[in-house]
Amino acid sequence: MVSVCTFGGFRLITGSKDKTVCVCSISNGIKPVPIHRLHFSHSIRSLCPVPGTAHDKVLVVGTAASDIFWTNGLEAEGESEYQREKRTPIVCGHFDGELWAIDVDTNHKESRRRRFVTSGEDNQLIVWDMEHKTAITRTLISDMPDGSGASTYPLRCKRRRPGATSSYPLHLSSRAVALSPDGACIAAGTNSGVLHIFDATTLARICRKDLSSYGRSGSVQAIGVLRYSPDSRILAIGMQDSTIILCDATKRYASKGHLRSHKAPVTHIDWALNGRHLRSISADHCLCYFDINKEQLSRSKVNLYPRVFRNTRWKTQTCIFSYPVSGLHLRNHYHRSDFGTGGVENKSKSSAKTEKTPAYILSVDIANSRKLIAAGDQEGFIHLVRSPCPYENIGKRTTHAHSVQAAQVRFGSDEEVLLSVGAGDRSIIQWRVNSTAGEAEKPMRVVSRTRIYGVEKQEDFSIG
User: Fold this and answer.
1) I want to staple 284 with a disulfide (CB 3.0 to 4.6 A). Which of 152, 264, 453, 456 is the partner?
2) Residue (of 202, 183, 185) closest to 107 by Cα position
3) Would you say 24 and 35 are in contact if contact means Cβ atoms under 8 Å apart?
4) Closest CA to 448 of 92, 108, 133, 104
5) Residue 310 class from Cβ within 10 Å (0-12 exposed, 13-18 middle, 19+ buried)?
6) Using an 8 Å Cβ cutoff, are 57 and 51 in contact?
């Protein structure tokens, strides 16, 4: 038993790890008598009756899966299986492992909703609404607990391999997601190298591809990053074994090309605006450029002359090493006088002086107007600077947003919204950006408006 509360004067309500809420009568004063039970999909963590409602019949239930339910009509003698499946939480979120995957819908004018999608190591794929700050719909990434096609999966599974922070096995954990530019499909990659394709509207499963056999070693390899081409015809997949796989979306995501120039896991991928070029960054900080043959993906190859890409326009700007963001990695950029507590303090043995070293940048994103750069580092700080930022003395501002790594930052399509994702705290923060870049007499402001999980937060800070 986890939570107990009284309800309606003569009722006792209990919730426990057996995923049920038991309503008992205590009117006889001798022994609680169970009246009926409410069944949920996860264990119960908290119960709270809502005072002032009609006959005190409303109960708020919180589960271990970060779901909060608003239940009505507890005097009913029970509920059907259909009612249990259709119960919708008023607040939901990710609850296990880490959260690294987020992508924003850039085609919101046709879909008529400003939305973004996240996938986590809790086997959940969630589509969010930016305007209402609520979940539109969600689904399970995989319903196969052992790869055999079973329809159910255990809630808590034993870890299969080191390196994964989730209690779920690798094929139920995801750290990569991508939404096609045309807004039709959502791709999610698991830590076992399996690619899942969903319909962006209904989240119906379109296809499933096992890509682990296409890597260098042929063993199970995690998918680290997914990125669609501007025309949504090609999906670039960065694997943990340093391979980039090119899948043809028009042929049910058949693997047509492989790029093997990296020597470490691929972490970031950007497409050129014409769809003919691709750049990627690996964990060893190696930046590679590729020429993509759209007619025959198997003939795509690395380009050893990066100077030819100096005037290339990129569809996305998420690579942490490039000219516009080179100033973020300078040594003095994260000095205490500029950023408060950002950075790491190191004391050398030969000197008593404290040396400030820069915090490692995990993710960057450049707004569509190319005037603002957002960056997240390993200490949970979100940095906003003017673009381009080739030097350290560019106008900047920072705030401590997450308790651990700021895994991803993404601008909305209109750059009025900035989204940040915390890896360990599994939180999604939506920021409102008031930008007056280019007008020296007006400062740039960022207002932290709402945390997705319902925690209100208000903070103003300006960029000089």
Assistant:
1) 264
2) 183
3) yes
4) 133
5) exposed
6) no
Q: Which residues contact 286 (CB under 8 A, 6 or more apart)?
A: 262, 263, 264
Distance CA 85, CA 23 (A): 20
User: How many residues are given for the chain?
Assistant: 464
User: Which tokens is 417 given?
Assistant: 């919204």
Q: Which helix (H) or strand (E) holds 13?
A: strand 11-15
**43-88 pLDDT per residue, tens:** 899 888 877 655 557 788 999 998 999 886 554 545 555 455 567 8
Q: What stretches of 240-380 adopt beta strand conformation (E)? A: 244-248, 254-259, 266-271, 277-282, 287-291, 301-303, 344-347, 354-357, 361-366, 372-377
Residues 407 and 257: their CA atoms lie apart, in Å, by 28
Give dist(CA 149, CA 46) in Å, integer: 34
**Which neighbouring-strand residues pair with 126?**
118, 138
Strand residue runs (E) in 260-380: 266-271, 277-282, 287-291, 301-303, 344-347, 354-357, 361-366, 372-377
pTM: 0.83
Q: What is the pLDDT of residues 308-337, one digit of tens each?
A: 998 899 999 999 998 888 888 865 344 333
Instruction: Pick left, alpha or beta for residue 270 (phi over 0 → left; psi -120 to 50 → alpha; otherwise beta).
Output: beta
Alpha carbon distances (Å) from 88 to 40, 67, 123, 183: 11, 9, 18, 25
> Omega before 388 cis (within 30°)?
yes
Strand ranges in 141-243 using DSSP code E only, listed in sequence order = 174-179, 185-190, 194-199, 205-210, 223-228, 234-239
CA nearest neighbour of 420 among 372, 364, 351, 348: 364
